[in-house]
Amino acid sequence: MRVVLFALLLSLCSQASAHAETALLSASDSGRGLNAHVTLLADPGAELNIDDLQRPDVQTRFVPAEGKASVGQSPHPWWIRVSLQRESDAPFRWWLEVGSVTLKDLRIYLPDGNGGWIERQSGELVGFNEGRDHAYRRMLFRLPLLGDSQPVTFYLRSYDPAGNSFPLKVWQLDALQEQAVGENLFLGLIYGVILAMLLYNLFIYLSLRDSAYFWYVVTTTGALLMILAMTGHGFQYLWPNGPVPFWLDHISIPALWGFSACRFTQTLLQTRQFVPWAHRLLTFALTLYVTAVLLNAFGCRAFGAWVFVALALTAIPASLWASFRRWRQGYFPALLYLLGCGVILGSVNLLLLRATGVVQPAAWNAYLFPLAVTAESILFSFALAYRRSSSRNGQQRWSMPIRKRARD
After folding, report:
1. Does any domain span residue 9?
2. Contact 341, 278 (CB under 8 A)
3. pLDDT digits 0-9 by tens, 138-183
């Protein structure tokens, strides 16, 4: 009798748990986040497949995500279980958005209606169109028709040692397309401002051949590529026809940006002459950036990602202190640089916290970095312009006749 009661209690608890994790969709739920309802399972050694997940002992190992949309730089895959059911007045057709743009490998397993599973691969290992059901900058999948009597359960497998994140939303396609118009307009404005700054300073570099302008152009190019990669527009429009090559992924492009930013700092602030210890730290940071790319090229993506955490302790403090020292020495462009560096510092630290899983992905922190890069590009351009103006005025002053200089 006790055994029967225990089995009945266990069954009731299991049903209550399944009911708690099922997201019940209403007609107004387009754009609703799902991470409060999903469950997660770590897969050390990548030993599990979709058939293994159906075993009762494996099912009990899933734990509620409790809103978590990132597990940070995890070396093994993670399985995500999602159960959806619609209310009687809700649409039958829904679309699933996976908000992580730079995820290395994502697999989604949808029921085929005959007791089996349909596997779709997405992420950076396949081409843009191959990895989604609709041309959108984030991964987007058409879900099976939902019923109002039984939930539909499906699974995702996320793997990226440089940062596992999986923010999930469900959409009606027309609502998503309407939102995408506003997103593209906002991001297009950011791209336009950065590109204008890049072309303007490229023109000056071609006229003057000043190395500071050269490194500004390379830095801004790296930042623009990084934003394009982070938003998904790079994958959609610039490299859509196959897997993302390692030199365009979210290790190599940030390394290009960081390397050129260090060289720009050294050149603009003349750190070799005026702040030699900061110059040496920045030179060490250059070596770390090259190391990150080499590790990534040889498949050590996780180690390459952790190099960026180390860089937060070298390049950023060195740049801030060097700009502060130069400003205190009376060099006004250093103040403009310090303001730009401070803006970008906050956004870069936020990116590192997102990559390590300390801060969860959200709409507000997804757009902070593009805005910070835009502000940085403008301030750095002002710093170069002031440097050029003061240099020209100094040359004009010392080219005056001695009698005129004495009157001044």
Report:
1. no
2. no
3. 999 999 999 888 999 999 999 998 878 899 999 999 999 999 999 9
In this structure, are 200 and 293 located in the same domain?
yes
Domain boundary among 171, 193, 209: 171
Nearest to 371 by CA among 355, 352, 348, 354: 348
- Measured from the Cβ of residue 339, the count of other Cβ atoms closer than 10 Å reads 18
Residues 27 and 113 in one domain: yes
* Structural domain span for residue 374: 181-397
SS3 of 406, please? helix
What are the residues whose beta carbons fall under 8 Å from the beta carbon of 157, sequence distance 6 or more? Answer: 43, 77, 78, 79, 80, 105, 106, 107, 108, 109
Q: Please write the tens of the pLDDT for every residue from 328-370.
A: 999 999 999 999 887 877 776 666 666 555 666 666 667 788 8
Same domain, 247 and 148: no
Asked if residue 108 and residue 204 are part of one domain, the reply reads: no
At 311, phi and psi to the nearest 5?
Answer: -65, -25
Which amino acid belongs to residue 52?
D
Do residues 22 and 150 lie in contact, with contact meaning Cβ atoms separated by under 8 Å?
no
